[in-house]
Model the fold of this input.
Amino acid sequence: MKTLIQNITQLVAVPPGPVAGEAMRRPPIVEDAALLIEDDHIAWFGYRSDAPDHAGARVIDARGGTLVPGLVDCHTHVVHAGSRADEFEQRIGGASYIEILEAGGGIKSSVRMLRTASEDDLVAQSLPRVRRMLECGVTTIEAKSGYGLSPEHELKTLRAIRRIAAETPVEMIGTYLAAHTIPPEFAGRPNEYLDQMLESALLKSIVDEGLAEFADVFCERGAFDLEQSRRFLGACKEAGLTPKIHSEQITRTGATAMACELGAVSADHLEFVNDDDIAVLKRSKTIPVVLPGCSFFLGSPVAPARKLIDAGLPVALATDINPGSCTIESLPLVMSMAATMLKMTPLESLVACTANAAAAVCRADRIGAIAVGHQADLVLLDVPNVNRWTYNVGVNPVATVWKAGRVVVERGDRAVG
Ligand SMILES: [Zn+2]
Done:
């Protein structure tokens, strides 16, 4: 089956990731373009006047819009139970994330709510969020466990992620974040908790059932220290899960360097990275993932994204959607924040949410790019260029979304004035 999309004002041919440093600013752009989809992949793209024979193809008029790769949200906690809206007001009153946590709130209340939710509840609560993210042009989502904190409830979360994948066109990628915080029943005994969550039969069933591809740890004061984080990721890696890490978010712990040494695919947050960490990242293949939505939501410092890019690194952006530190579901809104808060250009942000985000989930050879042979995950926008997408903050100009060559979102006439 063939589809020709034509009358595209601007096609941003983001190359396969990772795209580092200066190159992030200048992805190739084809003006007055067309693109041919064959079955599930991109068969051709270029100037409209050069379009190959497309007899029998369905022809779609892009009405002068912009075509970009499907977005990849490479760091989320989208599958969770309940809300922490009450905490939002406490924080407005001046309480810090760590103060709320130490008073038994914060992530601990998300754990209580997740443990009482059934797998069906979890799917029912999370599915609408995933559908809204798809409407914003997100075709692949990494989703972490980490509110269950027992073998039973972590498995329940990972199974809910898999069920959501079956019920939406979005490609869902599971990450085992058992080392998110220490559950109350193990207070003061973090190593015994980790023993339980690293039990070999448990890790084997996660890997054998394909419930997760990655393992993640929150390395932070009040959560897991450097040695515990290293032990958790090392054991998970041995079992077949690729390491990721939450590093240098609230304090600098040195977790980024540890993760690079372990061969982590990404180091995420990075608000407090220093020059030594940047030098270590430069020598590694680890993708730095920046989450400005979290800084916005918490009113906390931002990661030095400009410095990371100028150092020649392939920065990725993600929402970090979660019930406590960032409820933002819209990756395009995060692109607007990256412009105003991180001084990233709209094209840098697009590359960060496509090619580099795909690299952060080990899929850069298949998604996150407009390249011949790549999967046809595409977003058509009712705006003439990417700048207009990020400039119209919070407005959704998505007209059509394709996942693996199939139209999965089609919206009416939504031209942005
Ligand atoms: Zn996170």
Observations:
- The mean pLDDT is 96.
- Residues 119-135 form the longest helix (17 residues).
- The two ends are 34 Å apart (CA to CA).
- The longest strand covers residues 2-12.
